[in-house]
Amino acid sequence: MENRRFNQRPRFAESGERERSNAKHGNDMIFGTHAVLETLRAGKEIERIFLQKDISGEGLLEIQRIATQREIPVQRVPIEKLHRITRKVHQGVICFVSPIQYAPLDNVVQAAFDAGRMPFLLILDRVTDVRNFGAITRSAECAGVDAIVIPQKGGAQINSDAMKTSAGALNFLPVCRERSLLKTVQYLQDSGIRVVGCTEKGTQALYEADFSNPVAIVMGSEEDGISDELIRVCDELVQIPMTGQISSLNVSVAAGIALFEAVRQRAK
Question: Which CATH number fits domain 105-266: 3.40.50.1000, 2.60.40.10, 3.60.40.10, 3.40.1280.10?
Fold first, then answer.
């Protein structure tokens, strides 16, 4: 696919003290005020930053400022959490470098239209399980999805577990991290892309929906499904017909079913 270049990135160079991907969080981990500031200023793709609660300082304020400017998720946490991650001198700040380069959604959409293809996107609303995310990514790449769209906050962390479970798919499939999925849906609809939510609240069976045109499929968390605000703005709500005693599917399985129904229709 033409847009696969978005996920290509050089290996991260050594910068300050860090622990490799055998850390619990599975990303390249940077800690210490100076090392984190240098990483931010170098423009590296940051997954998220943990700042210690109830401390301040010029360096930490600068980290917060740059992170806010770059829309990097920042979480204030107790010192005990930082100590659980590393016992080294972290100076109240730890950041995790993403193993992928996030793609601009408008670039992905435009690349698909420019190539004469009908955009095919997958939106994941609050899917937090890393292994489910990796499995979904694997199915999406095999299905020819142009990109996966995730929220800036409240989604699975893309780490070594996600990379492994994706079987390498995350090296090829663009991932777009958006501040507001609601605004993202509105943007896609304005771009001529139909947004279909796959949910038990659906009013028709998955197989009755039309996926043959530009489409974005929305999948929600296993616990709560698609958020109410997204439910209200989807163009269509569909459900996967089930006849067994268990009323729900694992989200990665459900995503695979929905994606390949779209593949079947689009292959005609």
Answer: 3.40.1280.10
